[in-house]
Amino acid sequence: MSKLSIRDLDLKNKTVFIRVDFNVPLAPGGQEITSDKRIRASLPNIQYALDHGAAVVLASHLGRPKGKPNPEMSLKPVAKRLGELLGRDVRMAPDCVGPEVEQLRPAPGGVLLLENLRFHPGEEKNDPAFSKQLASLCDVYVNDAFGSAHRAHASTVGMIQFVKQAAAGLLMDKELEYLNKATKNPARPCIAILGGAKVSDKIEVIENLMKFVDQILIGGAMAYTFLKARGEPVGKSLVEDDKLDLARVLMARAGGKLLLPTDHVVTAELKEGADHRVVTKIPDGMLAVDIGPATIEDYSAVVGKAKTIIWNGPMGVFEKPPFDRGTVALAKAVAASGAVSVVGGGDSEKAVKSAGVADKISHISTGGGASLEFLAGIELPGVAALTEK
What we know:
The model has no long low-confidence stretch (mean pLDDT 94). The chain has helices spanning 37-51, 76-86, 99-102, 121-124, 128-135, 170-183, 203-209, 222-229, 244-254, 293-305, 325-337, 346-354, 368-375, 381-384, and strands spanning 15-19, 55-59, 91-92, 111-113, 140-143, 166-168, 190-194, 215-218, 258-259, 264-267, 276-279, 287-291, 308-312, 340-344, 363-364. Strand 3, helix 3 (99-102) and strand 4 (111-113) form a beta-alpha-beta unit. The radius of gyration is 23 Å and the shape is elongated. The chain has 2 domains: 6-172, Rossmann fold, CATH 3.40.50; 185-375, Phosphoglycerate kinase, N-terminal domain (Rossmann fold). It has a 6-stranded parallel beta sheet with strand order 3-4-2-1-5-6. It is an alpha/beta fold and 389 residues long. 33% of the residues lie in helices and 15% in strands. The chain has 14 helices and 15 strands.
């Protein structure tokens, strides 16, 4: 079912509550933002509301203050940076609910940023009384925080029952458009590239992807759990021994869909400048840290023929060059493929950026956990709660 979009709302002279994702990284002390990427991602939606005559109330969490105020997790630095980016004054509320906040409700064209939602235990508990207080601040509700859509919190789910209309923001719209395009009747061949450390993190994703993708290319440390389950030597490579039976079940179900590395970059110890070499069988005392050149070639050939690509997780110990070669090579192959490509997860995003191909990826997801749950076929509470068209 398609959800109401901010484009479907009459915003003129309305107060719109926009749930944004301003969970930005802060330098120690909480006064300086080290990356404003998430603030910039929300700008088109905020500007759209202002251009259509709305008064804007913005709400977000930041960090994990455990239900009580923590000045090091205040959104005050965000208000300052947002004002600079918008080129207009952004008022900072002293709290996110209460009489003092209600008196600050802006006029059309005004922007108010509420203080950190998680300073109240009612946010994460999805408390109805807290939800109702949030809803009293607006006429309509818009969720533009895809990164929090997998959380059933007061600001993502609870308050919606107390508002007349609840719509997806422009960023949320784009996330759902591309994730649906990749998973519901995708152009074929449709492939998935999965990496990262643990099979256990991706079990449901693998099971769901097997229903509609043509092939799944496995890399990263999770590959060595599968290889050990198949009886191959893995040396000191990271393995989840308690998931070996599960890996065998997944491989049996996948048939020929699941591809594993055929060669590996190995080293005796994981440190800068450590000696490393390429092997097809991992010796005792060595650990695999990246896919090898033959695997890069094989995987790149599959990627080159794909029409839809879903990618989540690096192919090796990406943060320690030269063990990023497999990940960067695949990023370049995905970019060159011309396929509809959806990349999710922080390391995958870093890979396409360091490979210099971010502008050739169809969509880079803003929500790692939310996109993983979507790919696992799990309904996202923050999306399900929005008004149907």
